[in-house]
Design goal:
The complex is a heterodimer.
Chain A (H helix, E strand, L loop, with lengths): L3 H8 L2 H10 L6 H8 L3 H13 L3 E3 L8 E3 L1 H31 L5 H4 L1
Antiparallel strand pairs in A: 1-2
Helix pairs in contact in A: 1-4, 3-4
Chain B lengths: L4 E5 L3 E8 L3 H9 L1 H7 L7 E7 L6 E7 L5 E12 L3 E9 L7 E10 L2 E9 L3 H10 L4 H12 L1
Antiparallel strand pairs in B: 1-2, 2-8, 3-4, 4-5, 5-6, 6-7, 7-8
Helix pairs in contact in B: 1-2
Classes of the chains: A mainly alpha, B alpha+beta.
């Protein structure tokens, strides 16, 4: 969970989000990633470094290519965090449902 | 329940929607009247809101204080900017944990939806980095504080 800070920072960049979206459909090399973004390979490599440090991608040694893939643990951690926030807010709103059900319109004067 | 949606939009917005089986007037009042707010805006079991100030008029103040009854607590302050009774509120707020978080600008809409209400919260943070930091630092304060962070910072 200590990675969440860097993970969310990494996600704040649209190019890095697009790279992650691309990797969601499978492993890719720097060259393959650079193509659709019309970026230099060094520029893409810098983004990949940020994503790697944030625990969102992993790289495999395969000669000089080092293909990238999504790192499940890092992505799951973000999902879990957002799910927890959803859960906490949902709990408040479930409670509000009950309050609303108890609010008798005839008691309006008392409520105002 | 699957009634609620929470989405990250663009670079610095968070949008929450939720349907309620009550008219907009009731949902609006539950969001603006202290004695009603204190009944539901609480998060996990065991937390209460002993102090609730809400002055729903332009430049009106808001201050919510939460406690877990065991020495743990935090608070939120804010100001109402625009108030259209039963349909729309715009306010700004920040949490003290204990340092203040950057201002969160929130538009709350209460739209008639059949015989119920569609609630839409649109939160705007100063920038992408702030949103990212807020989402991430929430974890450091643990789940107990998270629901309020969600309300205040996402």
């Amino acid at each position: 969970m200590r990675n969440l800070d860097s993970a969310f920072s990494a996600l704040s960049d649209p190019t890095r989000r697009a790279i992650l979206a691309r990797l969601a459909s499978g492993e890719a090399t720097v060259m393959e990633l650079a193509k659709p973004f019309e970026m230099s390979q060094p520029a893409v490599s810098r983004h990949l470094k940020v994503l790697e440090n944030a625990g969102l991608i992993a790289r495999r040694a395969e000669g000089a290519k080092r293909p990238c893939r999504l790192a499940k643990a890092g992505v799951d951690a973000i999902d879990e965090w957002l799910a927890m926030l959803r859960e906490a807010l949902a709990r408040n709103y479930d409670r509000l449902d009950q309050i609303l059900a108890d609010m008798n319109p005839k008691d309006g004067e008392e409520m105002r | 329940m699957s009634k609620m949606t929470l989405t990250i939009e663009g670079d610095k917005h968070i949008v929450v929607t939720r349907r309620f089986a009550a008219p907009p007037e009731a949902v609006y009042r539950a969001h603006t009247e202290p004695h009603l707010i204190q009944k539901w805006l609480l998060g996990p079991d065991g937390w209460t809101m002993p102090v609730c100030i809400s002055e729903p008029r332009p430049n009106g103040k808001m201050r919510y204080e939460w406690t877990n009854g065991k020495g743990g607590g935090f608070y939120l302050t804010g100001e109402y900017l625009e108030v259209e009774p039963y349909s729309r509120i715009v306010h700004v707020e920040r949490m003290y944990l204990p340092d203040p978080t950057p201002d969160n600008h929130v538009e709350t809409r209460f739209d008639q939806d059949g015989d119920g209400t569609l609630l839409t919260l649109r939160m705007t943070l100063p920038d992408t980095e702030t949103r990212a930091r807020m989402l991430a630092t929430g974890m450091e304060h643990g789940m107990e504080a998270s629901y309020v962070r969600l309300e205040s910072t996402i």
